[in-house]
Write a structure and sequence with these properties.
The chain is built from nine helices and six strands, in the order E-E-E-H-E-E-H-H-E-H-H-H-H-H-H. The strands form two sheets. Strands 1-2-4-3 form a four-stranded mixed sheet, with helices on one face. The radius of gyration is 38 Å and the shape is rod-shaped. It is of the alpha+beta class and 296 residues long. It has three domains: 88 residues, Ribosomal Protein S5, domain 2, CATH 3.30.230; 38 residues, no CATH class; 142 residues, Butyryl-CoA Dehydrogenase, subunit A, domain 3, CATH 1.20.140. Helix 7 runs antiparallel to helix 8. Helix 1 links the parallel strand 3 and strand 4.
Length: 296
């Protein structure tokens, strides 16, 4: 079953003081274009996520965003001993100078000292990104699975639309074949008239050239090859829709071939009804090609 290149998934998680949210989305593209927005201090995370996405996807413009926040707690902080010693020394010096001038200072408290800038710092354990990266890597597959499920669901809807359009193409091709059979007598008369014109102007002409002209007239009137190719393209398109894996590029090329045959049918029809069918074919094929642009 085909997959759509359009998809979206999100997720949330937490580990220790950290919490995060994922957003994974994609739209159609000629190839696979991955754009990851993750904190660069999480060593190894981006490379791992990129590898997961490259393995699971073949085409699409894909954007993955990770928003990370951290809540500071007392257990995450440690005392900067050097800063505390410097603060106590400065405090003692200040009190000594104040006594010399007969000034009494209010006694400082521990909270006063701890509130000074640089007195508390994040502990080494709080800055260790390894466990966090491991947790994020373990949770991402669930987000990716939801994303792939949506692309498969969108693909099923696309397949239904494309199958309906192929049904229309098949019906119009059958109508064209029926009209081509009905116009045989009319085309026979046209060929006889063309032959008479050629013979009237063929006196002294090269017999081989006259034969070539007659053959060309006959070829221009025959739609057998175009209609046979249209039927073959329909079979090939249905086979692609039944396949697993990326088929978008092949399907896009096939719609170009559909369009080529419809154009030729219009140019060779020499019949108003056949031309009308050819134009309907072109309209449906254009609609089909628009849908195919979103097939992976």
């Amino acid at each position: 079953m085909i997959k759509s290149m359009t998809g979206f998934a999100s997720g949330k998680g937490a580990h220790g003081p950290h919490s995060w949210s994922w957003e994974l989305r994609s739209v159609n593209g000629k190839g696979l274009d991955l754009r990851l927005r993750v904190p660069d201090w999480l060593t190894g995370l981006e490379a791992g996520l990129r590898a997961d996405l490259s393995k699971a996807l073949a085409r699409g413009n894909v954007t993955l965003s990770l928003r990370l926040s951290r809540e500071e707690t007392a257990s995450d902080l440690s005392l900067n001993a050097a800063a505390m010693e410097a603060a106590l020394a400065a405090l003692a010096q200040t009190e000594a100078m104040a006594k010399e001038h007969g000034v009494t200072l209010t006694q400082s408290t521990g909270s006063d000292l701890l509130s000074l800038k640089g007195m508390l710092e994040a502990s080494a354990d709080a800055d260790d990104a390894g466990p966090l990266v491991q947790q994020l890597r373990s949770e991402f597959p669930a987000v990716l699975a939801d994303f792939l499920d949506m692309r498969r669901t969108e693909g099923e809807a696309l397949a239904a639309i494309l199958n309906a359009q192929l049904d229309t193409v098949e019906t119009l091709t059958a109508q064209a074949l029926e009209l081509a059979e009905k116009r045989r007598d009319e085309m026979g008369q046209i060929l006889r008239e063309n032959l008479a014109r050629v013979l009237d102007n063929a006196q002294g002409a090269d017999p081989d050239r006259v034969a070539q002209e007659l053959a060309l007239i006959s070829v221009k009137a025959d739609l057998t090859e175009e209609l046979d190719r249209l039927k073959a393209h329909i079979v090939a398109a249905r086979a692609l829709l039944a396949q697993d894996g990326p088929v978008g590029r092949k399907f896009d090329f096939l719609t170009q071939e559909f369009n080529r045959e419809a154009n030729t049918l219009c140019s060779k029809s020499q019949n108003a009804d056949l031309t009308s069918v050819g134009l309907e074919l072109k309209a449906v094929i254009d609609q089909m090609r628009e849908q195919v642009q979103n097939v992976e």
